[in-house]
Amino acid sequence: MSTHDSLATSAAVSTVASMVDHTLLKPEATAADVAALVAEARQLGAYSVCVSPSMLPLTGTGAVKVATVCGFPSGAHHPGVKAVEAAGAAANGADEIDMVINLALATTGQYDGIEAEIAAVRVAAPAPVVLKVIIESAALTDEQIVAVCRAAEAAGADFVKTSTGFHPAGGATVHAVELMAATVGGRLGVKASGGIRTTEAALEMIAAGATRLGLSGTAAVLAGLTD
């Protein structure tokens, strides 16, 4: 490999790493597991770590941001509960909060209700906390994806996010990311998450318009850029 190629590869790894929320949301994850996650995120140059709210506050994160989840993984929580959870997470040092929408509202066309619950979380965790809205895109029609993304934007969210990674319908798809990116038009970020396990899949999501990636196997994805 030439010096030029080596530098280009290094830049590609750094660029992709800087888009990654290095994630550990398994229910059985321990404090030791999270500490290892943080250490690996720092080593890899990931943008953030994403952990369960019970793991906050975190120490030793350095420049790595701290993200957590809210209303996870079902989204079937009262808006007031989501708001309290978000406020607590922010108070415990979360830089970013990934909240799950109430899917029943989406599948029955109650988009005002979705906007209201997102707005409640936004009030509870105001900027500069970054608010990402998990829409569980694999469980929605295209029409529902568009409507939910519009509700998220109207409620003051910063990102829309494909998936929790826990829904049986599946995770991120290129089609969903393209549709979400077209809907928010660069005004919000788009996070692709759920089932992204290969370098090829990660690059496809970025090409489709993802501006953030939720990965648990970050090291393997980044290693694929050097092959």
From TrEMBL:
InterPro entries: Aldolase_TIM, DeoC, DeoC/FbaB/LacD_aldolase, DeoC_typeI
Pfam families for the chain: DeoC (PF01791)
Catalytic activity: 2-deoxy-D-ribose 5-phosphate = D-glyceraldehyde 3-phosphate + acetaldehyde
A Gene Ontology biological process term: carbohydrate catabolic process
SUPFAM superfamilies: Aldolase
Any single Gene Ontology cellular-component annotation: cytoplasm
Highest taxon above the source species: Bacteria
Localization terms from the record: Cytoplasm
Active site feature: D98, K161, K191
E.C. number: 4.1.2.4
This protein's UniProt keywords: Cytoplasm, Lyase, Schiff base
Pathway(s) annotated for this protein in UniProt: Carbohydrate degradation; 2-deoxy-D-ribose 1-phosphate degradation; D-glyceraldehyde 3-phosphate and acetaldehyde from 2-deoxy-alpha-D-ribose 1-phosphate: step 2/2
GO molecular function, one term: deoxyribose-phosphate aldolase activity
Protein's job: Catalyzes a reversible aldol reaction between acetaldehyde and D-glyceraldehyde 3-phosphate to generate 2-deoxy-D-ribose 5-phosphate.
Family: Belongs to the DeoC/FbaB aldolase family. DeoC type 1 subfamily.
This protein's name: Deoxyribose-phosphate aldolase
Organism: Georgenia yuyongxinii
Lineage: Bacteria, Bacillati, Actinomycetota, Actinomycetes, Micrococcales
Gene (UniProt): deoC
